[in-house]
Design goal:
Elements: E1 9-12, H1 15-25, E2 29-34, E3 41-46, E4 49-55, H2 57-62, E5 66-70, H3 74-84, E6 97-98, E7 104-109, E8 115-120
Parallel strand pairs: 1-4, 5-8
Antiparallel strand pairs: 2-3, 3-4, 6-7, 7-8
Length: about 120
């Protein structure tokens, strides 16, 4: 048996918050688009990664995930996000720092509490 991709579901009370983080800030593009339905959702894709963004107040209130994205050029990624979306820098991860496990990291967090940790080993 072989798996080819892991695609997490991320729930938002207002899907526009998720689109700001994943599309506007992180540069994902919309693959599957069900944004105009009564229960909006979409699949956002970038560099072989995918995330299923779903508007569901019930599930958004139950789950605030933390996701890690690994890169090979954290300084460039940080420079871009800190200049284009400084409001999304996490209060506890506003700068790149070296963690005890050997990764350089900084973090983004949107207004709903979804946290994206950017890391480089």
């Amino acid at each position: 048996m072989t798996f080819t991709k892991l695609i997490p579901n991320i729930f938002y009370t207002d899907i526009k918050v998720g689109l700001k983080l994943f599309v506007d800030c992180l540069g994902f593009s919309i693959g599957y688009d069900n944004l105009t339905s009564a229960a909006p959702s979409c699949v956002a894709e970038k560099d072989g990664l995918s995330v299923f963004i779903i508007q569901s107040k019930e599930f958004a209130e139950k789950d605030r995930p933390e996701i890690r994205l690994q890169t090979n050029n954290i300084e460039d990624v940080y420079a871009k996000f800190s200049s284009t979306h400084p409001e999304l820098l996490h209060p506890n991860g506003k700068k790149i720092s070296l963690k005890p496990w050997g990764a350089k990291e900084f973090a983004l967090v949107d207004e709903s509490g979804i946290c994206i940790i950017i890391q480089q080993f």
